[in-house]
Structure formats: C-alpha cells, structure tokens
Amino acid sequence: RQGSELVGWARGRWTYEGIDLNHNFADLNTALWDAEDNNLVPHEFPNHYIPIPEYYTLTNATVAPETRAVIAWMQRVPFVLSANLHGGELVVTYPFDMTRTYWKAQELTPTPDDGVFRWLATVYATANLAMASGERRPCHYDDFARLGNIINGANWHTVPGSMNDFSYLHTNCFEITVELSCDKFPHASELPQEWENNKESLLLFMEQVHRGIKGVVQDSDTDRGIPDAIISVDGINHDVRT
Fold first, then answer.
1. Domain membership flag for residue 92
2. Which end of the chain is least crowded, N or C, by CB within 10 Å?
3. Peptidase M14 domain spans which residues (predicted)?
C-alpha cells in the first residue's frame, strides 16, 4: 500500500516463518563443483538430476512449506522452461546464480548451456518495452542497458540456493529470473502499463519452448518409448532425460 517510495527492498521478501524464499532451495552447486574438481563427473557423480541432500529433506530443516510444495510440483510435472518474476530492477538474469568461488560476491559463473540461457534472457529483454526503450535509464546504480539488459546471476550478486540453479541441476527445466520493473511495488494505477511492458515478452518467452531438438526415444525392437533415457550432447557437460 505504501508503494516503493516508502519501503525498502526487503519488504515482503520473507515468509511468516522468517524464511527468505529466494535462497531457500537446496544448494546442489557445491556438490557438483566439488565432484568436478575431483574428476568424478559424470561417471561417479551425475551432471544432471542431482539428488537433494539428505539434510535438506529432514523435517526440522529450514525449508519453507512453500518451497517444499514447489519442489514436489517440479518433481511431479516435467517442466522444461520457466521464469520467476521479481521486481525492483530492469534486467533478466540467468544461471548460475551462485558464484563458483564461494567467498566471492560476484563472479561470472556460466552453466554448460550458457548459450541457450543467454538466448532465453535476450528474447525476454529485447521484447520488454521498458528495457528496449530508447529513453531507458538505470534503475539504481547498475547500467544493465549496456549489457543488453541481461546478466549472469552470479556476476551480479551471488544467490546460494536459488530456484534457477535448483531447477537446472535437479530437473530438466531451464529457468531465468526476470526483474520486471524499477518499481518493486507499483501502485495499482501503474499496473496496466507494467502489463503492456511485459505482455509480449512473456508470450515470446513461452514460445521458446519449441526451440531445440524434440523426439521420442524408442526401443528398436518393440517401438515402445523408453522412460528416463539419458540424452548427452557432445561438448555440453549437462545431460537431460526423457
């Protein structure tokens, strides 16, 4: 009700239980990178569908019921494309969100599918009326326009336990974060313009689900589909499953 003018960036970020949902997913990055450093990937440690650590599944773990519900949803429905919507800045970020050097606040940390993620982010940013405007001005201190209004999440600020990284490492889903508006809490009168700014971007982004290779993996003798077949692409150290 106060609008952005009178509230800080953290307002509305934590749940009633005091959990920041933006950092609440299991950190699968550290386990993967440790395994890579020890040359265990992918023969002894997977490069995709990384299992959730046991400590995270305990009933007394600091995991919000909202987070558990979203994870159960992701495990039940085989999503391949997703975006989560934030406010307070005008930029599209893509994984990895967590820096590989654990003590660094910012570090370029691309995924093996960096080209795809950069494309997905660019599709949204170039169709967003506010981002693409010739009168575009920085929201705060960062001039994202000179970067095409996209950035690797970890190269902006590290976010351990992000939904983007979790989606990429635990499921087949490629997910980005869209910072929709400089105004984190737009007034009701401003919402129609915010919708116009983002409508075409949302539609174009959803259409990207049709890009890439599609098909059915079948048994050559019976023609029956093979579930959970692992698909590897040369040069990309991140497999997907049927």
1. yes
2. N
3. 1-209
User: Is 179 designated active site?
Assistant: yes
Beta bridge partners of 86: 179
Residue 160 lies inside a defined structural domain of this protein: yes
128 found inside a domain: yes
Q: Give the Cα separation of 242 and 230 in Å (integer).
A: 7
Average pLDDT of span 197-208:
97
Say which of 179, 190, 194, 200 is annotated catalytic. Answer: 179
Asked if residue 214 is part of any domain, the answer here is: no
Sign of CA pseudo-dihedral 29, 63, 162, 80:
positive
CA distance 172 to 51: 13
User: What total number of domains does the chain contain?
Assistant: 1
Q: For the whole prediction, is pTM greater than 0.85?
A: yes
